[in-house]
């Protein structure tokens, strides 16, 4: 970002951002100019030239996430990792040695809905990197020997994850909230499902789901746009379209939450209880997305939030408490998150519910709202400072279907929030009834507490899956 912006932001932080009278407003962030075009094979390309630093960042997004795993849970994640096992022209060792020698970074991964590739390299090295990126994305080999090594690492990681409730509680939560819907699929899979996967499974998943149509690649950094457009057209036009139209599995209806439920995950050696309280949330394209960011800042989105004040600062029941909305393309969840010693499980749950009830009853006063607005506006621009962050932003715009107006009008939309509007947002999106609870801890010590909240379903943390 421009030096003047950084100076203004520093002044804003130093003034504390607590009251409108003291705040030096940061300059409104605008999306830098970019070009968008679509190749004949359907691949969407974004180019944004940024010449301040001689670096290029690449970010690709492909509709190949865990929602397409089917019964082979964990397949999307392993397929994304497998893109780097070697390609038509490069072995895994050659890819790593070439990129390491020039200080370039390459990462491939899968999430709930999509798969992705990110890369960063010096502008002067792009002719060395682009041929590798092209083959990683369009011609992976899925070497069986490398796959076997990766599967072993994944299985070990899955086993260790169950030792830490905070590492797995979100997978239990998604399965609990979404049920049999594909949004309930755990990205990592489980030991039983991953153990059965083969390199051929990865190859099959790739052929079915890694298609240029429905995918996008964003390039941000120090390059000539005309030359880059010619380069990418030459390199990526050969990526063949898929032979089958990909089904929009996530568009299937999700069963509504019509009653309070409790999932108790028993961990026999637990000395504390980790829990989530909440329910359904929002889609990413919800028009109240910005308003919710402001409101949730007050409730549980920062250190001085209501939740953290009451559960940590005032009562000492926990080291931290927060709340979050987790939006996806077609649905989302809301959750209060915290943990506490086993003996204080009851008081902590009660205190969290008390804060939620008070939030509904009292709403947000003018001073608190002003503070939340300043906080959100101060946190927003730094999320889009680097070339890598801007490349990710372009992909988000593509994936979720919003344009630069979301970014360009963000500050104005935040400023437009009123206490009356905040009250409406609380009533509409923060659940008051049919709450869902997940508690991970020692069942013998906390089951009676769970049963007071609602009907209990019990699982063993050592059991396979979620």
UniProtKB/TrEMBL annotation:
<dbReference type="InterPro" id="IPR011765">
    <property type="entry name" value="Pept_M16_N"/>
</dbReference>
<feature type="domain" description="Peptidase M16 N-terminal">
    <location>
        <begin position="50"/>
        <end position="187"/>
    </location>
</feature>
<dbReference type="InterPro" id="IPR007863">
    <property type="entry name" value="Peptidase_M16_C"/>
</dbReference>
<protein>
    <submittedName>
        <fullName>Insulinase family protein</fullName>
    </submittedName>
</protein>
<dbReference type="GO" id="GO:0046872">
    <property type="term" value="F:metal ion binding"/>
</dbReference>
<keyword id="KW-0732">Signal</keyword>
<feature type="domain" description="Peptidase M16 C-terminal">
    <location>
        <begin position="196"/>
        <end position="374"/>
    </location>
</feature>
<feature type="signal peptide">
    <location>
        <begin position="1"/>
        <end position="21"/>
    </location>
</feature>
<dbReference type="Pfam" id="PF05193">
    <property type="entry name" value="Peptidase_M16_C"/>
</dbReference>
<dbReference type="Pfam" id="PF00675">
    <property type="entry name" value="Peptidase_M16"/>
</dbReference>
<dbReference type="InterPro" id="IPR011249">
    <property type="entry name" value="Metalloenz_LuxS/M16"/>
</dbReference>
<dbReference type="InterPro" id="IPR050361">
    <property type="entry name" value="MPP/UQCRC_Complex"/>
</dbReference>
């Amino acid at each position: 970002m421009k030096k003047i912006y950084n100076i203004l932001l520093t002044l804003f932080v130093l003034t504390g951002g607590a009251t409108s009278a003291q705040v030096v407003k940061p300059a409104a962030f605008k999306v830098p100019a970019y070009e968008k075009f679509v190749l004949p094979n359907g691949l969407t390309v974004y180019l944004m030239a940024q010449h301040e630093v001689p670096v290029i960042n690449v970010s690709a997004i492909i509709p190949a996430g865990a929602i397409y795993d089917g019964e082979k849970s964990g397949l999307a994640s392993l397929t994304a990792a497998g893109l780097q096992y070697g390609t038509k022209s490069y072995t895994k060792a050659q890819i790593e040695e070439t990129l390491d020698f020039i200080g370039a970074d390459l990462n491939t991964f899968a999430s709930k809905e999509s798969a992705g590739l990110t890369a960063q390299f010096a502008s002067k090295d792009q002719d060395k990197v682009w041929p590798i990126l092209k083959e990683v994305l369009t011609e992976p080999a899925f070497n069986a020997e490398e796959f076997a090594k990766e599967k072993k690492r994944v299985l070990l990681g899955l086993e260790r994850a169950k030792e830490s409730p905070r590492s797995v509680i979100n997978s239990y939560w998604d399965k609990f909230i979404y049920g049999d819907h594909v949004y309930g699929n755990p990205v990592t899979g489980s030991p039983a499902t991953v153990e059965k996967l083969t390199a051929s499974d990865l190859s099959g998943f790739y052929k079915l789901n890694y298609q240029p149509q429905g995918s996008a690649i964003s390039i941000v950094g120090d390059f000539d746009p005309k030359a880059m457009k010619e380069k990418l057209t030459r390199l990526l036009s050969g990526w063949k379209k898929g032979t089958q139209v990909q089904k929009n599995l996530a568009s299937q209806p999700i069963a509504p939450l019509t009653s309070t439920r409790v999932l108790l995950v028993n961990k026999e050696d637990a000395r504390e209880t980790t829990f989530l309280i909440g329910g359904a949330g929002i889609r990413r394209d919800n028009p109240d997305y910005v308003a919710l960011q402001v409101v949730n800042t007050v409730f549980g989105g920062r250190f001085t939030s209501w939740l953290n004040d009451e559960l940590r600062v005032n009562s000492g029941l926990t080291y931290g408490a927060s709340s979050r909305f987790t939006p996806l393309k077609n649905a989302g969840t809301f959750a209060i998150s915290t943990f506490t010693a086993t003996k204080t499980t009851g008081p902590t749950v009660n205190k969290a519910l008390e804060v939620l009830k008070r939030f509904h009853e009292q709403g947000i006063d003018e001073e608190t709202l002003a503070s939340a607005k300043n906080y959100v506006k101060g946190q927003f621009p730094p999320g889009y400072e680097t070339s890598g962050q801007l490349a990710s932003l372009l992909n988000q715009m593509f994936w979720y279907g919003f344009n630069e107006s979301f970014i360009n009008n963000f500050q104005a939309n935040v400023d437009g929030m009123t206490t009356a509007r905040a009250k409406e947002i609380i009533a509409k999106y923060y659940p008051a009834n049919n709450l869902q609870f997940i508690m991970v801890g020692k069942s013998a010590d906390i089951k009676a507490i769970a049963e007071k909240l609602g009907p209990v379903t019990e699982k063993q943390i050592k059991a396979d899956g979620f």
